[in-house]
Amino acid sequence: MAAHLPVRPPSLKQRALAVTRRLGLTGRGGVILGPYAWLVLFFLVPFLIVLKISVAEPAVGIPPFTKLIEWVDGGLDLKIRFSGFQALFEDDLYILAYLNSLKIAFVSTLCCLLIGYPMAYAIATAPEKRRGPLLMLIILPFWTSFLIRVYAWMSILKDEGLLNNLLLSLGIIHEPLKILYTDWAVYIGITYSYLPFMILPLYATLEKLDHTLLEAAADLGARPWKAFLTITLPLSLPGIIAGSLLVFIPAVGEFVIPSLLGGSDTLMIGRELWNLFFNSRDWPSASAVAIALLAFLVGPIMIFQHFQGRDQDKGAA
Amino acid sequence: MSDAPDLRPRPAPKNPIGKSQAAPLEPWRDPNAKPYVQIEKVVKRFGDFTAVDNVSLSIYRGEFFSLLGGSGSGKTTLLRMLAGFETPTEGRIFIDGVDMAGIPPYDRPVNMMFQSYALFPHMTVENNVAFGLRQDGVPKDEIRARVAEMLEMVKLTPFAKRKPHQLSGGQRQRVALARSLVKKPKLLLLDEPLGALDKRLREQTQFELVNIQEKLGVTFVVVTHDQEEAMTMSSRIAVMDHGHIAQVGTPTEIYEYPNSRFTAEFIGSVNMFEGHVVESEADHSLIRSAEAGCDLYVTHAAHLPEGSRCWVAIRPEKVSITKDKPAELVEGRNVTRGVVREIAYLGDVSIYQIDLPSGKRVRATAPNVTRRTELPITWDDEVWLCWRPFAGVVLTD
After folding, report:
1. Cis amide bond preceding A63, omega within 30
2. pLDDT tens by residue, A114-125
3. Which chain B residues contact residue A217 at CB under 8 A?
4. What ipTM is given for this predicted complex?
5. pLDDT score recorded for residue B223
6. Using one digit for the tens of pLDDT, what is the confidence trace for B157-192?
7. Are residues B31 and B83 in the same domain?
8. Are the beta carbons of A220 and B83 separated by less than 8 Å?
9. Which ranges carry the ABC transporter domain (chain B) (predicted)?
10. Which residues of B touch A315 (CB under 8 A)?
11. Residues near A123 by Cβ (< 8 Å), separated by ≥ 6?
12. Are B284 and B331 in contact (CB under 8 A)?
């Protein structure tokens, strides 16, 4: 029989590995753990808190809402109230604000697409040397504070602002246009602020587009415009969808731009939310508005992305 | 048309695959024939780089014309100028008598099959093929019929509803072919049509391509870097080198009568002996070569003054290799001795590499006629090499 070999005790590293393995933690799991922890901590937990507040009742005090679970007369009292959500349906202000937000976000997204597509196309088809600097120009405004840029628009759009002065001096108009504090200013502001989010994903898809496909189309008799419609546009659809979602989603809940550039009658859900929280101090109603907004957006977007994902699977080479 | 029969020697049929066609054979020999594609002194420069340098070519209706050359020889640029994707810097291109200057690709009577196939990834096979017809506003019923016919021809009918990424390389190649042929172009340009296929599929597809070309009577201009492919399929080949045309001719002409060292070495393998002209007569030339270790007697006029430097090209299969001294020869003419250094047995033939006393390595191929040669030639054997007077070609550059 073979002699007993001395068994070396496992090293610290081996023991550490064994522990992590028992916890189901592999290298790959470890990498994913970081983002997950981040999402749970800074997205899921706050969301649950907001959800909890939305089913409370407003109360005078700090915090200004009732507790979810309370110790009353030797028993646990679970208190769920839907008064916040009820208000959403009773007061058509909120419905209107939602609809108006969707409208403003939709129009702004469309404007971003109409302006952004030609820009992205021009950058993608520019000589390779020039693409870097051009992209830089698109990103450059981010280096200035967002608020300052919105304030700058105020001075451009106001009655005696840059735009009106220019148009007046050119004789195109004879009295100043009322732009600031109207929906127009909100459209301009949102389109301007979110344009880079449209251009960047569009550029990414257009830049990858195989140029020989357009040559093939031309060879088969397609005029440039027809080739664009039948080849370039359908193949850049993933970029259009990504860009539109990146603009549309934040635009719906936008608060700063409508409150600075919009008029008192510019109804947007972000502003109503702010009013509820800070003016009415009705936290449960404000939370209900936020939850409803999320539900409104998440549903359609998930359906959209499901279909898009399926399409991309089919289109992938 | 000249009615007198052409009595010039024509050693092999124009197309080795055995093409029989109604179009007059070898229209390029007929001085009255009108070329379908005429390229006149075309130059194309990209900045400082001259991709195509003063090329003139005439291509006739029904030809299977190959542009053969290595990478950077300008063959693809020339093809792209025919398609209209590049504009010549100088010179003119006529297709069917019409000057193509300023005519965009979508208005040319030409279709192209791209090297990468350039299939539209978001369209089914059917829609890819129908694309060209849709641009011309062909009625729907006719589109359906012609697409079906085309898919039938390339044997892709069961795959009509698939997208390109669901097809194999060979199937994609056939979709590209169908798409480029569906508009019945008079001239089809093919950029490395078989480049992406593996060897077996390539050989099979060569025959298919030739059959289709014959059936439809389309003029094909093919760009290829594969000399075997060009030899198998073409009616004529233009060998290109650094933007120039080195030689234009039938595969036989190019192989048997190369006009330069470049062509001789580019097509197949060749033994090149440097020497100088000793005798230059109308019916023969004699070249003395220290490299070969003998005089080279060639039965064609070199048109060179005596004493001038030249090269004699001899194909390996024309060099016979024997262990015994060959009979019927003039001592010191077209016969030399060497030692076998390498043997490659390929089954049908064997390739021998023989070192001459001058240090020159000679390549000779011999068919393996018998199953076991009586006196097999093996490594380090001293052998005799000889060749017939017609075997050599005298070249000057």
Report:
1. yes
2. 999 999 999 999
3. 120, 131
4. 0.82
5. 95
6. 999 999 999 999 999 999 999 999 999 998 999 999
7. yes
8. no
9. 37-267
10. 121-122, 163, 165
11. A131, A134, A135, A138, A199, A203, A207
12. no
**Cα separations (Å) of A289 from A52, A87, A293, A296?**
13, 9, 6, 10
Cα distances from A286 to residues A54, A97, A278, B184, B321, in angstroms, run 7, 13, 9, 68, 99
Q: Residue B372 maps to which CATH number?
A: 2.40.50.140
- Give B86→chain A minimum CA distance, Å: 11
Q: Which of B83, B116, B163 sits opposite A219 (nearest CB)?
A: B83
Instruction: Give the span between the Cα atoms of A188 and A153, in whole angstroms.
Output: 9
Do the chains contact at A220 and B120, CB–CB below 8 Å?
Answer: no
Chain A CB contacts of B122 under 8 Å are 234-235, 315
Residue with tokens 């490594």: B379
What tokens does A57 get? Answer: 């009742």
Please give the structure tokens belonging to residue A195. Answer: 């344009």
- pLDDT tens digits, one per residue of B104-120: 999 999 999 999 999 99
Question: Which of A213, A219, A223 is closest, CB to CB, to B120?
Answer: A213
Q: Looking at the structure, do residues B189 and B92 belong to the same domain, yes or no?
A: yes
B207 CB-near residues (< 8 Å, 6+ apart): B17
Read off the pLDDT of residues B203-251 as tens digits, 9 standing for 90 and up: 888 888 888 888 888 999 999 998 888 998 999 999 999 999 999 999 9
The amino acid at residue B260 is S
Strand partners, B58: B38
- Domain limits for position A122: 104-268
**Chain A residue at shortest CA distance from B119:** A213
Residues of B in Cβ contact (< 8 Å) with A230: 131
CB–CB contact A230 B110 (8 Å) = no
Q: Domain tally for chain B?
A: 2
Residues 190-219 of A with CB under 8 A from B: 210, 212-213, 215-219
Domain count, chain A: 1
pLDDT tens sequence across B286-313: 999 988 888 898 887 778 888 889 999 9
